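Hey, resending since the last one bounced:
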Amino acid sequence: MKILITGIHGFVGSNLVNALKDQHEIYGLDIIAPEKEGVIKTFSWEDLDDDQIPSVDAIIHLAGKAHDTKNKSGADIYFKVNTDLTKRIFEYFTNRQEIKKFIFFSSVKAAVDKVHGEILTENVTPSPVGPYGESKVKAEEHILGNLETTPDAYKGRDVIILRPCMIHGPGNKGNLNLLYGFVRKGLPWPLGAFENKRTFTSIGNLTFIISELLRKKVESGIYNMADDHALSTNELIQVMCKAMDKKARIWKINKGLINLVAGTGNLLHLPLNTFRLEKLTENYVVSNAKIKKALGIDKMPVDATDGLTLTIKSFSSH
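The structure tokens again:
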């Protein structure tokens, strides 16, 4: 199969190339177009306009503006990249009937910023908060709108919107940076009384799912992407410490006292305030049942704990 991958020089793109290069012919599409091992040729977005890209069987659209946790990026850049570029590459796909698969990497943040209930499924009504999630859901709406208004254009073609939760793997900790740095310094975790759980996406599971989506016929639509099991922050710290050969230091300080400190932090502008406490202790558990059912698999190949261990070991070794 001939595959065009946008954003091929990023973390996910690089891992996909390694996973797919022996079975498929891979072309890249990126802002810059240097040669990349395992890729026949990488094109620029200008080449897309000039119709310079050879005929392919599938498009995997990774290119996007990542979530800026420091909120330094203007809202317009998210929509220019996450929404407008997606519209552009989807139009390219729509107009070329020989391309049978289109896989768009959205995000769970396009669904909700905070999970209400025990687990997030694809049935939730999107209510993103902030330009990252809002720009992603706008791209989703454009794709779904085309599927609904011109269904004949997509007969016999798979249009998949993937919503991965936090992606990590060797060489990239995702948004685990803050906690990893905290644990690496040997500091005690003071929020052990909060047993919140969070789902992650190991890069090994992600590349496996993409391989299966390319190989099998799947109904068009939205699919969450996540590991099979969620971990509490306490469990995550224990995994990190074991990977770094450190002793986990978890303090279970009374929740009432922690809430009081956070409330004081609002007034005195301390590092811990009520907003940050909520983010550190909230549940964000994502269901992957739909994608597994669609592909006919019982479980992901990489255990959540094993995947996180590989990630942390890759950083502690450097």
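The chain has two domains: 2-170+201-227, 171-200+228-318.

Sorry for the duplicate.
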